[in-house]
Amino acid sequence: MDIVGFLKSQFICHLLICYIFIVSGLIINFIQLFTLILWPINKQLFRKINCRLAYCISSQMVMLLEWWSGTDCTLYTDPESYHKYGKENAIVILNHNFEIDFLCGWNFCERFGVLGSSKVLAKKELSYMPIIGWMWYFLEIVFCKRKWEEDRKTVVQKLLNLRDYPENFWFLIHCEGTRFTEQKHQISMKVAEAKGLPKLKYHLLPRTKGFAVTVQCLRNVVSAVYDSTLNFRNNENPTLLGVLNGKKYHADLYVRQVIHILIPFKQERIPLEDVPEDEQECSTWLHKLYQEKDAFQEEYYRTGTYPAVPTVPPRRPWTLLNWLFWALLLLYPLFQLLINMINSGSSLTLASFAFVIIIASVGVRWMIGVTEINKGSTYGNNDNKQKQK
């Protein structure tokens, strides 16, 4: 291992990265709080400012993937579609198989300049989480409780509020609702058999109601649906801890700007108005889309490539420059404080510092643990238990 790789694997480096992220994130959350006074005066200015502030937080995560880990991200897509990315509003359907698939989705947004304004459909609990959850609140992210009877009215209202959004945005959605595991896949396929739906090998059954409502509410605002399928070469199993350790992965992202359903590998663009508006028809449409996604996964596992032109979108320097700004701003006072504490020679002061380090270590491990598959959501499992009662 070279010296740079050795340093990247050291816990003290991880601690400093997390310190910069947490402190800068809380500062930005505090600034966002004050932007609320703009909402009744100039809503669009409020939104533009919060897009930039949100970028200061989310770009630090993307920096870890792009610059710290050095992960290669190859995009497979139609060259004609490539030139439209970032220049139109879009709904982006993502598969949900890996611990860092959300990070790769953000990386996709960053390469085309829509990271700060990107939207997601997220569980309500995340809105209470400092930094990212609070950032999303000011970005007007759509939160739901995963109980559709309670969620529908709130989700519809939040989506309709985005119709006059002043920035180009991508709405990222994991239609499977929860991350893929073998246990959840078995449960999902039992549901497919009971409902007479085609079985999938590499995906869970998509949850169609949220997608259908998103299409209905954002029609004439969003120009297209991008179907995205993510894989990693050489059967890599990427983790956030691996990224933090500086491990380099090789991501392949296949993006279709939506296809004619059930015509394999056809790249013809379909605008959003051609996606069925009726909820039942939209549900059928989405199930067929996932059959195709399964076929693409099968093809990738067999050949190691996708049926499209590979390209590597250029890295933009802004994620690194943003992180360096916060590092210079926050590390100097930290080191100055440490020097003063050591010079004081007080046992109580040093003991207090050691205690803070321990608490910080636990906090860092907890933040990493949130992304781990074996500690992920039990959403699919709980659904099955409720059906069995």
Q: What do these coordinates show?
A:
The protein is an alpha/beta fold and 389 residues long. The chain has one domain (1-318, 368-375): 3-Layer(aba) Sandwich (Glycerol-3-phosphate (1)-acyltransferase), CATH 3.40.1130. Helices cover 53% and strands 11% of the residues. It contains 14 helices and eight strands. Strands 4-3-5-2-6-7-1-8 form an eight-stranded mixed β-sheet, sandwiched between helices. β3, α6 (132-138) and β4 form a beta-alpha-beta unit. α2 (11-35) packs across α12 (318-344) and α9 (208-218) crosses α11. It holds the Pfam family Acyltransf_C. This is 1-acyl-sn-glycerol-3-phosphate acyltransferase delta. Belongs to the 1-acyl-sn-glycerol-3-phosphate acyltransferase family.
Number of strands: 8
Radius of gyration, in angstroms, nearest whole number? 22 Å
Oligomerization state? single chain
Question: How large is the share of residues in beta strands?
Answer: 5-15%
Q: N- to C-terminal separation?
A: 54 Å
Output the structural class: alpha/beta
Count of helix runs: 14
Net shape: globular
Uncertain spans: 259-269, 384-389
Range of helix content: 40-55%
- CATH domain topology: Glycerol-3-phosphate (1)-acyltransferase
User: How many domains comprise the coordinates?
Assistant: 1
GO molecular function, one term: 1-acylglycerol-3-phosphate O-acyltransferase activity
Family: Belongs to the 1-acyl-sn-glycerol-3-phosphate acyltransferase family.
Keywords: Acyltransferase, Endoplasmic reticulum, Lipid biosynthesis, Lipid metabolism, Membrane, Phospholipid biosynthesis, Phospholipid metabolism, Transferase, Transmembrane, Transmembrane helix
GO cellular component, one term: mitochondrial outer membrane
